[in-house]
Amino acid sequence: MILLVGCGVATGLETAVPSPTATFTPTMTPEPTDTPTPTPACGAHTENPRRYLALGDSYTIGESVAEAERWPMQLVAALREQGINIADPEIIAKTGWTTDELAAAIATADPVGPYDLVSLLIGVNNQYRGRGEDEYRAQFVDLLETAVSLANNNPQRVFVVSIPDWGVTPFGQGRDFRGVSEAIDTFNAINRQETLARGIVYIDITLLSRQVPDNPALIAGDGLHPSGAMYALWIAEMQRAVCHLLAQE
Q: CA–CA separation, 205 vs 105, rounded Å?
């Protein structure tokens, strides 16, 4: 069952880290190899479907793409191809949400854990609305703690996805796109630091999001949000890290 809490139209739109081994940063153009990279094992088959909760904003709800193209849906499909028994994702996300709005929505939805996997991607609307960095840090930390609690208090069943750079989109090009990119980097430095400090996996897809100017097919028809093709690039890069999480007891 897919639990969808929220969707719709937007209302507005490095510091040192203690554990670099917990991060997962994709490469832009992998070097060719003679032999294919082996597909990672995702753990033993379970009789009961694993449960996955995706928390976020427009990127997680998949604004302007079909349901099957949303990245949580693509992730589940990829995991099933590797033999994982996993239910459709439960999604609490809405276009335009900031950190505090997501927190309020989680409290209202009152999802019942434990979940085998919880993802968190939030912050672009804090940046878009000019909300403060200190406020973002405090509220992001609260959301991280909520995510861990929903994952049976196991931080190794949680992963954070970095904020994409909307400054490189056609929508962003009509604005101070360089300033947007710098601000996104600042917010990502905050969420990265707080994530790694808690031993949680951090998946950096921001570099991938910056491929849009070279490939218009990576942006949805609204000129702002990622297309299904862009989300597929995210999945290709995050799948190994997610498989590693599921393989842990």
A: 25
The per-residue pLDDT for 46 is 81
The answer to whether residue 55 scores a pLDDT higher than 70 is yes
Report all structural domains of the chain as residue ranges with CATH numbers, in order of start: 4-30+51-247 (3.40.50.1110)
219 φ/ψ angles, rounded to the nearest 5 degrees: -115, 145
Element (H, E) at 2: none
Q: What average pLDDT does the structure give for the chain?
A: 88
Separation CA 153–CA 195 (nearest Å)? 15
Does pLDDT of 35 surpass 80?
A: no
Six token digits for residue 37: 């990279």
- Please report the pLDDT score of residue 249 as a whole number: 65
Q: Which two tokens stand for residue 218?
A: 């990576």
